[in-house]
Design brief:
The protein has 388 residues and is an alpha+beta fold. Helix content is 29%, strand content 25%. It has ten helices and 22 strands. Helix 6 packs across helix 7.
């Protein structure tokens, strides 16, 4: 695993705009960065990323099975009690999932360390599935990369195939897609998934989260009063549980992507549960609930994470109980978990984080984010990769 500088494509910003990549630069700062790429060997990808991703995914599913069967654990995950039946029913029915993204700390030598599971609303899927692949093709054609260059990236193909399977499970249904207003990144992400669904033959529509209503029959509807009986939402379950219309979820008249049981996997309480069930696994880091910190006495450096959080918000790094770094944000009222600190590898001035994608149960590709700050956040740069 090495970081290699490379000449950027001529007028790539114009190409990005033409392909609908409207958020390649945000707030005047570069988000997509193709001035360099990360190079991996095939063995690093297959043995150190792909295999652990699929193994940890199965471990995560075992955590879900344990949590839905135990009221105490449901409380540990800070899930409102009135939604427990919804989640349990969703799991018992084995309602299908679309995708997830694992975050790993990996230096190319030691086992990749699992940091968290972005199981409900993972972003950067367009950049991963389409845009970095287009970059690879164009740089190979331009002679800037070897024709032997490849990429760990079957994400778009797997998404389309998964949507075909979901269409079979939901015959004659329209699939509605939703995200919040005023965010180019979320709208671009959802548009890409809509394109994949269209390619799979699914009739689909878009509605903003803020525009969803409820009919007299207690069914969710869009602005045209179309009944929403199947929906992909780029909107976290923990937010939905707090909404004014959240109680309407209990009517179970809508099939959701991601399904309600994914609210367990997107929850940071997953991390201490994994450590309890699979202690000393080479890809896991010790993790503890707040009332178990006595078990972490021998760990000098810990990362404090809110039970619910997004985009690296409200993360603190503690050394001998003293805070040495933190990120701002609105999360933390439900409490925190603590995970042993493991350093992100540093290339030049940048700390590097690997996102490993899953579609259904299969590893599907990686995304790479880097930042001068040790805590990766929403504006951390996206950098492409190759296998050589």
């Amino acid at each position: 695993m090495i970081r290699v500088p490379i000449e950027e494509r001529l007028n790539w910003q114009k190409t990005a705009d033409e392909f609908g990549f409207k958020f390649h630069t945000m707030y005047g700062k570069k988000y997509w960065d193709e001035s360099a790429y990360y190079q991996f060997s095939l063995e690093q990808i297959e043995k150190d990323i792909e295999e652990p991703t699929e193994e940890i995914h199965q471990m995560c599913l075992k955590v879900v099975a344990a949590v839905v069967a135990d009221d105490h654990l449901m409380q540990r995950f800070c899930i409102p009690k009135n939604y427990w039946p919804l989640i349990r029913t969703s799991w018992e029915k084995q309602e299908p999932s679309l995708y997830s993204r694992f975050d790993f700390a990996y230096n190319g030598v030691d086992p990749a360390k699992f940091l968290e599971n972005n199981a409900d609303t993972p972003t950067s899927i367009y950049e991963t599935g389409f845009w970095q692949w287009l970059w690879l093709e164009q740089q190979v054609d331009a002679g800037k990369l070897s024709r032997k260059s490849d990429q760990f990236n079957s994400l778009q193909e797997k998404l389309v195939n998964r949507f075909k399977e979901l269409k079979y499970l939901n015959p004659d249904k329209k699939l509605f897609f939703a995200c919040c207003k005023d965010t180019d990144e979320d709208r671009g992400t959802v548009q890409y998934l809509q394109d994949c669904a269209t390619e799979a033959g699914i009739i689909n529509h878009f509605v903003f989260i803020e525009d969803i209503g409820v009919s007299q029959e207690n069914e969710f509807t869009d602005l045209n009063d179309q009944i929403i009986d199947w929906m992909f939402k780029l909107y976290p379950w923990e937010f939905m549980f707090r909404e004014e219309f959240g109680q309407q979820l209990l009517n179970e008249k809508t099939t959701w992507l991601e399904p309600p049981w994914k609210s367990i996997l997107s929850n940071k309480a997953l991390l201490p549960m994994l450590w309890k069930m699979f202690p000393d696994h080479p890809n896991l880091l010790p993790a503890f609930f707040e009332d178990e910190l006595h078990l972490a006495q021998d760990i000098k450096k810990l990362v404090k994470k809110p039970i619910f959080s997004r985009e690296g918000s409200n993360i603190s790094i503690l050394e001998n109980e003293e805070e040495i770094s933190n990120s701002d944000g609105p999360y933390g009222e439900e409490g925190f978990i603590y995970q042993a600190f493991y350093p992100l590898p540093k290339f030049g001035e940048s700390y590097t984080l690997i996102g490993s994608w899953l579609v259904d149960n299969q590893a599907a590709g990686i995304s790479i984010r880097e930042d001068e700050n040790i805590i990766t956040q929403d504006m951390s740069r996206y950098v492409p990769h190759i296998i050589l």
